[in-house]
Amino acid sequence: MIEPKNNILAIASGKGGVGKTWLAITLAHLFARSGRHVLLFDGDIGLANVDVQLGLTPQRDLSNVLSGRHTLKEAITQYGEGGFDIIAGRSGSATLANMPLEKLQSIGEDLCNLQSNYDFVLIDLGAGIEQHVQYLAALAARCVVVITEEPTSLTDAYAFIKITSAKERKPDFHIVVNQAATQKEGESTYHALNKACVNFLNVSPPLLGVVRRDNKVRDAIRSQKSLLVKAPHSTAATDMAALSIKLMQK
């Protein structure tokens, strides 16, 4: 079994639609802007969209690696505007969605070999608690769990933390509340999840931060640009900058 790597950071949600991929992209851009060498790996197997959100058309992606035509290193694409690298998946690929565990393990080993070339490797996990999500999460020493105020987001995030924390090698969890109306409401959402974790799992994942609701995020996604390119001084960009500083300090 591969030991978790200190410079690998997993971004999870439990539920789709909470802004997990956007948050992973923005963190990667912020890390790169601070002078770090960063790789963003799209681990949302079969439903990948990092490249779509950034308006990129990679010549190679995970499907090329799975077919054996290229190595994982050869599938790296640079996002020039952000100054970081990505490894894209392929949305709607049944081959990737049904990837055998042994093939996923091979890709995980290659990713861990690549991590020595980077200050940070971010894995954008798929939503849910499937086997491939759990395997990729186990590569990371830290896991940022993204939630919103929606009850289904809280229950699914709790399920992800419950299953992942039961593993022999579990990451350190950090909670980010996204799309919060205010800082106070975001903190209230966090306390609801934390209460369940403390009462039933005997764990208390700390609040990394709150990202306030901001229409500039939607505009950036629609224009297929990083928020730091489209609206670098927006409310959400400011909140994300504070998160990135905390993670780099840790």
Q: Kindly give the count of domains.
A: 1
Oligomer: single chain
Sheet-strand content, in percent, reads 15-25%
Anisotropy-based shape: globular
Distance between the terminal alpha carbons, to the nearest Å? Answer: 25 Å
CATH topology: Rossmann fold
Low-confidence stretches: none
In spatial order, strands of the major sheet run 3-4-2-5-1-6-7-8
Structural class: alpha/beta
Mean pLDDT: 93
With helices defined by DSSP (H or I, 4 residues minimum), what is the helix count?
11
What's the CATH architecture? 3-Layer(aba) Sandwich
The helix fraction, in percent, is 40-55%
Give your account of this protein's structure.
The chain has 250 residues and is of the alpha/beta class. It has a single domain (5-249), classed as 3-Layer(aba) Sandwich (Rossmann fold), CATH 3.40.50. Helices cover 44% and strands 20% of the residues. It has helices at 20-33, 50-53, 62-66, 94-97, 101-114, 131-137, 151-165, 183-201, 215-222, 227-230, 235-249; strands at residues 5-12, 38-43, 76-79, 84-87, 120-125, 140-147, 172-180, 207-212. The protein has an 8-stranded mixed β-sheet with strand order 3-4-2-5-1-6-7-8, with helices on both faces. Helix 7 (151-165) links the parallel strand 6 and strand 7. The longest helix has 19 residues, at 183-201. It is globular and about 50 Å long. It starts with a strand and ends with a helix.
